[in-house]
Amino acid sequence: MPPDKLLPTTQPEYVASWIYVFGVLTLSSLVVVITTGCVLALFGPAWWHVSDVGRYINSLHLWSVELFMFVMVVHLWGKFFMAAWRGRRALTWITGAVVFIASIGAAFTGYLVQQNFDSQWIAGQAKDGLNSVGIGAWFNVLDFGQMFMWHIVLLPVAVAVLAVWHMLLVRLRGVVPPIGTTTPEPVPDTSREPA
Predict the structure, then answer these.
(1) pTM for the full model?
(2) Which of 74, 80, 93, 155 could bond to 85 as cystine, CB 3.0-4.6 Å?
């Protein structure tokens, strides 16, 4: 992909539908989540509990995660009902679904590192659930350090890498047309060719 072809100059008419907006909203809120998360990780847990700016950044992080999860679910269901895996787009669909699963893990570990009574209760309940399926010895939800590293390093890197891969696949394969429509051959962009 040459740099001048990375962003499309024209889009099909059906992209004007609202369901196509939720992918961009998911990406935009993910950028806010990662940015605020980096600021919180740099200054540490004590900062976001005692500083007014820290509490503000923490609330931005929380609400951007809420928005991210909401618009991602709408995007996921919209693409599910559009059968977005059609036309050699199965890998695009799979990477999006794996991003969703990794995001659930990141949100779960985020709740565990809040350091309040809610996170203690969630950790206690999760410990019992994870022990009942036999993985509590490897994923100790009561260990703040372990959950903190899952939340600020491992899962965000997985989400970011998978999201970039997903976007590259969308760019490579194109957006899925609505069911029952045929996509015409793209018209070549001749505006950049010398006269």
Answers:
(1) 0.82
(2) 93
